[in-house]
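Sequence, please.
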């Protein structure tokens, strides 16, 4: 069964809601690291320039993945990443074909990147501590909610796309969903 096309109003509401929700990852990947480090560089940076370059790449990649994921929530899911305004369609396109949680992974990459760029080990400790509630939320709330809402489509997706470590090749759903993304 194919879902009816979303109205312009639904798409606009999804885009605005997703943009507002950007506050959450901006806080996790920007405000919290700033509060912990004031973005001061430890001198000398452990690992030197190669570590700092790797950190810069991780920050940039993390920002790009978050932006891409937000677009997919608004356009493909016709909703937001926020639990109080979830998508009306299962989001399985774009980077979601490689990993089920690209936003969480990209936030972690951005924080780790800041740790490398600034030479601030405390960001790695914060990342480890922050992963505990994220993993609990995903396993105890998000996945069961998606299973209830999207049923067999989500179960197929979950069987084929890993939670945290990306696949090397994109997954394509069987049937009507395979043309997305």
């Amino acid at each position: 069964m194919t879902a009816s096309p979303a109205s312009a109003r639904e798409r606009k509401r999804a885009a605005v809601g997703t943009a507002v929700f950007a506050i959450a990852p901006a806080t996790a990947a920007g405000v919290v690291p700033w509060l912990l480090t004031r973005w001061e560089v430890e001198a000398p940076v452990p690992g030197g320039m190669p570590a700092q370059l790797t950190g810069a790449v991780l920050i940039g990649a993390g920002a790009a993945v978050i932006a891409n994921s937000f677009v997919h929530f608004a356009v493909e899911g016709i909703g937001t990443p926020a639990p109080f305004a979830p998508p009306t369609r299962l989001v399985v396109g774009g980077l979601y074909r490689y990993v089920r949680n690209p936003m969480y992974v990209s936030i972690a990459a951005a924080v780790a990147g800041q740790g490398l760029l600034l030479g601030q080990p405390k960001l790695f400790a914060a990342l480890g501590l922050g992963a505990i509630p994220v993993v609990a939320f995903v396993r105890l709330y998000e996945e069961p909610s998606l299973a209830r809402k999207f049923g067999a489509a989500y179960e197929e997706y979950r069987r084929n796309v890993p939670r945290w470590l990306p696949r090397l090749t994109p997954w394509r759903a069987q049937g009507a969903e395979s043309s997305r993304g």
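The two ends are 18 Å apart (CA to CA).
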